[in-house]
Amino acid sequence: MAALGLAPALGTAAAPATALSVARELGALQAQDYASGAWSLGVRSGLTLAEIEQAVTDRQIVRTWPMRGTIHWVPAEDARWMCDLLAPRVFPSVRTRHRQLGLDEHDVQLARDLFERHLAEPVSRPDVIALLAQAGVDPGEQRAYHLVGYHCMTGLLCQGPLIGKQPSFVLIDSWVPFSRQPSREEAMATVAERYVRSHGPVTERDLAGWVAAPLGFAREALALVDEHILREEVDGRTWLTHVDASPAPGRPAGVHLLPQWDEFLLGYKARDVTLPDEHVSRVVPGRNMVFKPTLVVDGEVAGIWRRQAARDSVVVEVTSFTTLTARTRRALEASTAAYGRFLGRQAELRLVEG
Question: Is 188-242 CATH 1.10.10.10?
Answer without folding.
Answer: yes
